[in-house]
C-alpha cells in the first residue's frame, strides 16, 4: 500500500493539472484533457448560483423544472448510456421506492417518471405510448398532462433520436401539432453543436440546456443531464452538488488513509495487480442502490475496458443476490474483490419483528424478539463478510450514513474520480469509448441497405 503512494500522488497531480489545462489557450483543442471538466463542475455551478441567482444555470434549471412540475403529471426522460444511467441512479436512490404508484399529493406535486430512448424495444415503446394515450385524455387537466426531456450530448445517438421522433409525434398529437404549448413541454439537453442542437434551434424550444464540451457522457450526472430531471422530481440539487464538491476537495487535498478516492483506488488496483483480482463486485445492501451500481458498471467498463485491460464490474443487490450469485462469490474463481456499499440508517422507521403466540411460532421467528429489519440486515452483512474472510476472500466496506442527496453526490463523485485516477495508474485514457463505435457503424450500414 505504502509502495503505491508515489504513483498515486503522481496520478492525482496529473488530474489536478488537467483542470488547469482545460480551456488554456496554450493547449491546442485536440490536446485538451477533453472530459476532465466534471472534476470542478459541482463547485463551479454552486458558485455561479451564488453570484448570479436565477440567471445562473441552476437558477434556470430550477425555474423550468418548476414549470414542468406545475404543467404535467407524467415526465418522460429520453436518453441512453451516460445520458440516462446517472438520472436513473438518482431517481432510485433518492425518490420514494413506489414513486409512480403514489398520488400527486403523496409525490409532493412532482410528476411520475418514465425512461425511454434507451433501447430499441418495440414492446416497451408501445407500452409507454399506450399508457400516455389512455391515461391522458384531457390536456386541460394537469393530472392528464405529460412532458418530456430528450438528452443526447452528440445529438446523433440512434436509440434516443428515434425515441424523440416517436414521442414527439405523440406529444404533438395530444397538444396540437407543433403548438407553442407542445414546444414548452419539451426540454432538449444537448451539446453545443450537433443534430439535436440544430433541430432545437430550428424548432425554437423555449429552453435548451447545455452539456459542456469538457464533460464526457458517463461523467455528466452533475451537468443538466442529471440536474434537470432531478430538479423536476424535486431532488435537492444544491445538496447533491455540495456533496460532490466536498468529495473533490477531499480528493485534492487529503493524504492516503483519509482520502476515500485514493484508498478505494489503491485497494482495487493492488488486488488486481498483485492477485489477479479482475472482477469488481459492487455489493449494494439495499434495493435503492441498484441503479447506482448499474451506473458504476457503465462508468468502469466504458472508461477502463480498453487495450485488453480494465477490471470487469458487476453490481449485486443483497441480500437478494446472495441467493443467486452468492455461491460463486464464496467458492468460485478467486478473481473477485467485493466492495460493500452499506447505508447505515434507512429513511423509514425501523420495523420491529412481530412476536406471535407460541402455537403460531412455526417459523421460529419469535427468537428475533426486540430485533428490527435493519438489525437483520446488519447481521446478514456481518455474516457474509465473515464467511468471505474465513476463506480468504477480500472485501471492503463503503459506508454511507444515510441515503440523501448529499451522500449520493459524494458517492457518485468519488467513483468518477477513482475511475479516472485508476486510468492514470494503468495508463489508459479513461475518456472516450472508441469500442462502442463498431456496432453503430455496422447498424447504420444494415439500415441503409
Ligand atoms: O459515456 C458516454 O459517453 C456514452 O455512454 C454516452 O453517454 C452515450 O453513448 C449517449 O451519448 P449521447 O449523449 O451523445 O447520445
Describe, in plain words, how this protein is organized in 3D.
The structure is a single chain. The chain is of the alpha/beta class and 449 residues long. Helices cover 47% and strands 12% of the residues. The chain contains 16 helices and nine strands. The strands form two sheets. Strands 2-1-3-4-5 form a five-stranded parallel β-sheet, with helices on both faces. The chain has a four-stranded parallel β-sheet with strand order 7-6-8-9, with helices on both faces. Strand 1, helix 4 and strand 2 (112-116) form a beta-alpha-beta unit. Helix 2 (41-52) crosses helix 10 and helix 4 (85-94) packs parallel to helix 9 (224-232). The termini are far apart. The relative contact order is 0.13. The mean pLDDT is 95. 5-phosphoarabinonic acid is lined by residues 80-83, 152-154, 157, 160, 216-218, 302, 433.
Quick overview of this protein structure:
The chain contains 16 helices and nine strands.
For this entry, give a set of tags.
449 residues, alpha/beta, five-stranded parallel sheet, four-stranded parallel sheet, 47% helix, 12% strand, globular, binds 5-phosphoarabinonic acid, monosaccharide binding, gluconeogenesis, carbohydrate derivative binding, glycolysis
Question: Strand fraction band?
Answer: 5-15%
Q: What sort of overall outline do the alpha carbons produce when their principal axes are compared? A: globular
- Small molecules bound: 5-phosphoarabinonic acid
User: Roughly how many Å is the radius of gyration?
Assistant: 23 Å
* Secondary-structure element order, N to C: HHHEHEHEHHEHEHHHEHEHEHEHH
What is the average of the pLDDT values?
Answer: 95
Family: Belongs to the GPI family.
Keywords: Cytoplasm, Gluconeogenesis, Glycolysis, Isomerase
Organism: Gimesia chilikensis
Protein name: Glucose-6-phosphate isomerase
Amino acid at each position: 500500500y505504502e509502495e503505491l503512494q508515489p504513483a498515486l500522488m503522481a496520478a492525482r497531480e496529473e488530474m489536478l493539472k488537467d483542470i488547469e489545462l482545460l480551456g488554456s489557450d496554450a493547449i491546442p483543442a485536440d490536446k485538451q484533457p477533453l472530459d476532465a471538466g466534471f472534476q470542478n463542475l459541482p463547485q463551479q455551478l454552486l458558485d455561479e448560483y451564488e453570484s448570479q441567482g436565477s440567471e445562473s444555470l441552476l437558477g434556470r434549471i430550477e425555474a423550468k423544472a418548476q414549470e414542468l412540475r406545475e404543467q404535467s403529471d407524467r415526465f418522460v426522460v429520453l436518453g441512453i448510456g451516460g445520458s440516462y444511467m446517472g438520472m436513473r441512479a438518482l431517481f432510485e436512490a433518492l425518490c420514494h421506492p413506489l414513486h409512480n404508484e403514489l398520488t400527486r399529493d403523496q409525490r409532493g406535486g412532482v410528476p411520475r417518471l418514465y425512461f425511454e430512448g434507451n433501447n430499441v424495444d418495440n414492446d416497451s415503446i408501445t407500452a409507454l405510448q399506450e399508457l400516455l394515450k389512455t391515461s391522458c385524455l384531457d390536456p386541460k387537466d394537469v393530472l392528464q398532462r405529460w412532458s418530456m426531456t430528450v438528452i443526447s450530448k452528440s445529438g446523433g445517438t440512434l436509440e434516443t433520436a428515434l425515441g424523440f421522433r416517436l414521442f414527439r409525434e405523440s406529444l404533438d398529437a395530444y397538444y396540437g401539432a407543433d403548438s407553442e404549448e407542445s414546444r414548452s413541454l419539451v426540454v432538449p439537453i444537448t451539446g453545443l453543436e450537433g443534430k439535436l442542437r440544430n433541430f432545437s434551434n430550428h424548432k425554437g424550444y423555449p429552453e435548451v440546456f447545455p452539456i459542456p464540451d469538457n464533460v464526457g457522457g458517463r461523467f455528466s450526472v452533475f451537468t443538466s443531464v442529471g440536474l434537470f430531471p432531478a430538479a423536476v422530481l424535486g431532488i435537492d440539487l444544491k445538496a447533491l452538488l455540495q456533496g460532490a464538491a466536498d468529495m473533490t476537495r477531499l480528493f485534492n487535498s487529503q493524504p492516503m488513509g483519509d482520502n476515500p478516492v485514493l484508498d478505494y483506488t489503491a485497494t482495487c488496483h493492488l488486488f488486481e495487480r498483485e492477485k489477479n483480482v479482475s472482477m469488481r463486485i459492487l455489493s449494494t445492501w439495499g434495493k435503492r442502490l441498484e441503479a447506482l451500481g448499474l451506473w458504476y458498471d457503465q462508468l468502469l467498463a466504458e472508461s477502463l475496458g480498453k487495450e485488453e485491460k480494465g477490471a470487469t464490474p458487476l453490481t449485486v443487490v443483497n441480500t437478494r443476490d446472495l441467493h443467486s450469485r452468492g455461491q460463486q462469490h464464496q467458492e468460485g474463481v478467486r478473481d473477485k474483490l467485493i466492495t460493500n456499499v452499506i447505508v447505515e440508517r434507512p429513511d423509514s422507521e425501523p420495523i420491529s419483528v412481530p412476536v406471535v403466540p407460541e402455537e403460531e411460532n412455526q417459523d421460529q421467528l419469535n427468537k428475533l424478539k426486540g430485533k428490527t429489519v435493519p438489525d437483520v440486515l446488519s447481521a446478514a452483512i456481518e455474516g457474509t463478510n465473515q464467511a468471505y474472510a474465513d476463506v480468504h476472500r477480500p472485501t471492503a466496506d463503503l459506508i454511507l450514513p444515510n441515503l440523501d442527496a448529499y451522500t449520493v453526490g459524494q458517492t457518485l463523485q468519488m467513483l468518477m474520480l477513482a475511475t479516472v485516477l485508476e486510468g492514470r495508474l494503468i495508463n489508459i485514457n479513461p475518456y472516450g469509448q472508441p469500442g462502442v463505435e463498431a456496432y453503430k457503424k455496422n447498424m447504420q450500414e444494415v439500415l441503409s441497405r
